[in-house]
Amino acid sequence: MAAFYTTGRSVCHHEPSRHMRISEVEELLRRPAPAFVGASDCALAWALPKLLETVFPRVLVIERKTEDVSASLMKLGGRPYSLRLDALHSVRSHPLVHWVPYEALTELSEHKRIWEHLLPGESFDEERYQIMSELNV
Predict the structure, then answer these.
(1) Is 64 left (phi over 0), alpha (psi -120 to 50) or beta?
(2) Bridge partner residues of 112 (DSSP)
(3) What predicted TM-score, i.e. pTM, was given to this entire model?
(4) Among 3, 20, 42, 89, whose CB has the most other CB atoms within 10 angstroms?
(5) DSSP secondary structure string, 19-47?
């Protein structure tokens, strides 16, 4: 997902909390250029309420089984942890948060909705989407 949402006018950092303090992540998200700066990082769930109040990021929450998330992190060299689901659920109805079940990520129409939410006003490149989908990134 981070690769797909990184374009000429946007950058999506992958798991920055693995090597940054929360204050550094906040600074990262506040950068004025490129036009859109984001992070794909499930470990930031605990900080999401604060980030929404201070940085105002557009947020995508992909709802997935906790054990699947932990297994995915382990493949990246991380360690299992317990997600702060209470923090996620506390922001579920926030206007900057778009919530998507993991299974919906196979649908082009859902990716178009996600794109519009995260990158409003930017054109969705369907050809690029097809290529990235085949690469499974």
Answers:
(1) beta
(2) none
(3) 0.85
(4) 42
(5) TS-HHHHHHHHH--SSSEEEEE-GGGGGG
